């Protein structure tokens, strides 16, 4: 089977996500060094820079579009695909983000935390005395945890909801999501009692 060609736009986004490694690579004596410096000139992935088009990159570097595409593939190979040339990944920093849903409709708060002695796990209950005026309660449970990796930082997203954890309700939600019983935006916008009513759970039948 013929190997599917990689998307140039996606490759550029991947390079932008590894800007520091790409900048280091651009200082080496490579045939693509000038072009690579043009690609990472602006921080278009994490910052305010705009993703350059292949045509723009080619014009800035003084090469044809087809040549630029080939050089971009070579860059990606050295950064990612070739285990002998690529640098080791390192994530020396960690940042926690509490994504907290309150007890009232539309009450949501995102909090950045730079130090956390013990990270709460899914199903564990958490008391937060700082935000009750806005969120309507001090009692929450951890619904989901997602890890993201930025260039030099691990971001731990901790999703919390008001109330107490219920293993049956957790299972029922997972089942409903897997079987697509509700539209995607219902999960984003509805409160727990509304979801339970739609799914005929407990007293909300």
Overview of the structural elements:
- This protein is α+β, with helices and mostly antiparallel strands and 205 residues long.
- It is built from nine helices and five strands.
- Strands 2-1-5-4-3 form a five-stranded mixed β-sheet, with no helix packed on it.
- The radius of gyration is 23 Å and the shape is elongated.
- The N and C termini lie far apart (52 Å).
- The model has no long low-confidence stretch (mean pLDDT 89).
Compact summary:
With 205 residues, the protein is an alpha+beta fold. Helix content is 39%, strand content 19%.
Number of strands: 5
Largest sheet: 5 strands, mixed
Strand order of the largest sheet: 2-1-5-4-3
Please give the count of helices.
9
Cα gyration radius (Å) = 23 Å
Distance between the termini: 52 Å
Poorly predicted runs are none
Strand content: 15-25%
Gross morphology is elongated
Mean pLDDT reading? 89
- Helices and strands, in N-to-C order? HHHHHEEEHEEHHH
């Amino acid at each position: 089977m013929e190997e599917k060609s990689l998307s140039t736009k996606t490759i550029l986004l991947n390079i932008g996500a590894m800007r520091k490694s790409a900048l280091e690579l651009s200082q080496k004596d490579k045939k693509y060094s000038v072009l690579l410096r043009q690609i990472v000139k602006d921080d278009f992935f994490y910052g305010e820079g705009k993703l350059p088009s292949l045509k723009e990159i080619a014009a800035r570097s003084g090469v044809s579009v087809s040549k630029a595409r080939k050089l971009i593939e070579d860059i990606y190979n050295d950064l990612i695909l070739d285990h002998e040339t690529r640098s080791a990944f390192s994530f020396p920093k960690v940042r926690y983000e509490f994504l907290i849903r309150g007890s009232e409709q539309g009450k949501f708060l995102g909090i950045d935390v730079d130090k956390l002695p013990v990270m709460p796990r899914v199903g564990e209950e958490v008391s937060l005395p700082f935000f009750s005026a806005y969120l309507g309660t001090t009692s929450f449970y951890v619904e989901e945890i997602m890890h993201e990796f930025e260039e030099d930082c691990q971001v731990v997203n901790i999703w919390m909801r008001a109330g107490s954890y219920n293993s049956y309700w957790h299972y029922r939600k997972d089942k409903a999501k897997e079987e697509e019983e509700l539209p995607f935006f219902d999960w984003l916008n509805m409160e727990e009692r509304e979801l339970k009513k739609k799914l005929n759970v407990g007293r909300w039948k």
